[in-house]
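Subject: Re: docking follow-up (coenzyme A)

Dear J.,

Thanks for your patience while I sorted out the input files. As discussed at Tuesday's group meeting, I've set up the holo structure prediction with coenzyme A included as the bound ligand rather than trying to dock it afterwards. The sequence and the ligand SMILES I used are pasted below, so you can double-check that they match what you have on your end before we go further.
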Amino acid sequence: MNIYGKRVVLRAMEKSDCELIRGMFNDPEIEDLVVGWAFPVSAFAQEKWLETHYNDQKSFRFVIETKEDGPLGIATLTDIDWKNRRATHGIKLANKAHRSKGVGTDTVMAIMKYAFDELGLHRLDGSRFGTNEASKRLYDKCGWIDEGIKREYVYKGGQFRDLTMMGILSSDYYSLIEKTHYWET
Ligand SMILES: CC(C)(COP(=O)(O)OP(=O)(O)OC[C@H]1O[C@@H](n2cnc3c(N)ncnc32)[C@H](O)[C@@H]1OP(=O)(O)O)[C@@H](O)C(=O)NCCC(=O)NCCS
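The structure tokens for the complex came back this morning:
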């Protein structure tokens, strides 16, 4: 089942998305903003990656798409722990021109709706660098709580960076949508 926000559709990755995903792995600007890291990825390696990264019981990776602009980036629910009912979430929009236009907010809202209303999860985890202002604003707006800092946790650009750990409980999400009427407007 595809997942619908108010503007975005989150759908499974297809072979035709390989160049979009490869572009994000190879982009130094995105690499600097996200916690993960990648070697330069060839077209061949990207196709191989896709072969082992289809959606299964443990991990979902969705392409974020809008009607107007087509595929824009990816959103993930990984390390799904069905016993403790939690998962880790991440998001990347490939092109700067598509950022700061509400796509991130609608995607995180749709991910939470799916995680809590459909999968029955209890909490989601995420993390960001203290310097990633867009990410901070996005997750604050979507009701996530900063839960602590892992000091000097990620090595990038010649230094160890602190990592802010964030989380949201299903109850936080339900309070947020009751307060903002997100799905009703
Ligand atoms: C982080 C990211 C997903 C946000 O998505 P987006 O579509 O730009 O976010 P939205 O347009 O929904 O904006 C959400 C909030 O962040 C703010 N924001 C967006 N870009 C911003 C920026 N560059 N600086 C400061 N605030 C910013 C918006 O103003 C909005 O807050 P507001 O409604 O209070 O004004 C996107 O910037 C991105 O993909 N960045 C590169 C990868 C990345 O950093 N991923 C997250 C790693 S933790």
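A couple of observations from a first look. Residues 30, 33-34, 73, 91-93, 99-105, 128, 132-135, 137-138, 141 surround coenzyme A (CB under 6 Å). The two ends are 23 Å apart (CA to CA).

Let me know if you'd like me to rerun anything.

Best regards,
T.
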